[in-house]
Request: fold
Amino acid sequence: MRSSANACPTYDSFNLSPHHLQRIFKRIVGISPRQYADAYRLDRKQKLLEGKSKPVKS
Reply:
């Protein structure tokens, strides 16, 4: 999993290793954090293409 400078919260804030935190996430959500992020981005892009959402200003 790629880390981001503005990702919040961080693995360190949970006092867990990245691998362990990913396992917990997958157990609760049912998919890996990467799969979740990919699905979120895909859904966001689809909504933008359909005109149902406004782009996020950076």
Notes: The mean pLDDT is 81.
